[in-house]
Amino acid sequence: MLLKRILDFVVSLSVLLLFGWLIVLFWAIAAIDTKSSGIFRQTRIGQFAKPFTILKLRSMTDTDPKIITPYGKWMRKYKVDELPQFLHVLIGQMSLVGPRPDVPGYYDKLEGDDRNVLKLKPGLTSDAAIKYSNEDELLSEQPDPLRYNDEILFPDKVKMNLYYVENRSFFGDIATLLRTFAKFIPAKNRQ
Fold first, then answer.
1. Residues β-bridged to residue 45
2. Mean pLDDT of all residues in the chain?
């Protein structure tokens, strides 16, 4: 899908050129807030199950990765910590729309037709990402978050992402991007 790649390139380049200064500001605040480099690197599973290192703004302290700072909570709530991933889209490791990249042990372990999800580049957003945009909060409410993720959330995400594999289109991607932006506009400001 050449049109999809053109959209990915144009949008990611535009975001980085127009808002790069803001990303640098958020990065500097994250570095001060977490007393670290301000960048979080983690191995994720990409297209064709190929691992890659994803970049995010650090929201947790270096001393205890379980402690999310107040600024980190704000970044996560509004997905500001994800902004460096526009670099991944620009260079073609990711797409604007596609299954969110997960840590090893999930997508790379899929079997049968479920592996069709791996044909796609991981994305910044998807219908599953919109549905579970409050995933951290949802998991924190569970007595066994890992089990809930493994038995409920992840299988539902796979199902939704497989639907995307079979039904993706340029205009569908545009619609998903618009739904993503709408998700972060407070209801009182929507027209």
1. 51
2. 93
Task: Kindly state the average pLDDT of the residues 28-57.
Answer: 95
Torsion of CA 12, 22, 183, 187, to 10 degrees: -140
Return the number of other C-beta atoms located less than 10 Å from residue 139's C-beta.
Answer: 15
Cα separation of the two ends of the chain: 33
Domain spans, the chain:
2-184
Residue type, 144: D
Measured distance CA(168)–CA(92) in Å, rounded:
18
Q: State the pLDDT at residue 124.
A: 97
Tokens read off for 116: 């069709």
Strand 39-45 relative to strand 51-57: parallel, antiparallel, unpaired?
A: antiparallel
Per the CB < 8 A criterion, the answer to whether 95 and 67 are in contact is: no
Mean pLDDT calculated for residue range 27-46? 94
Chain centroid to CA 172: 18
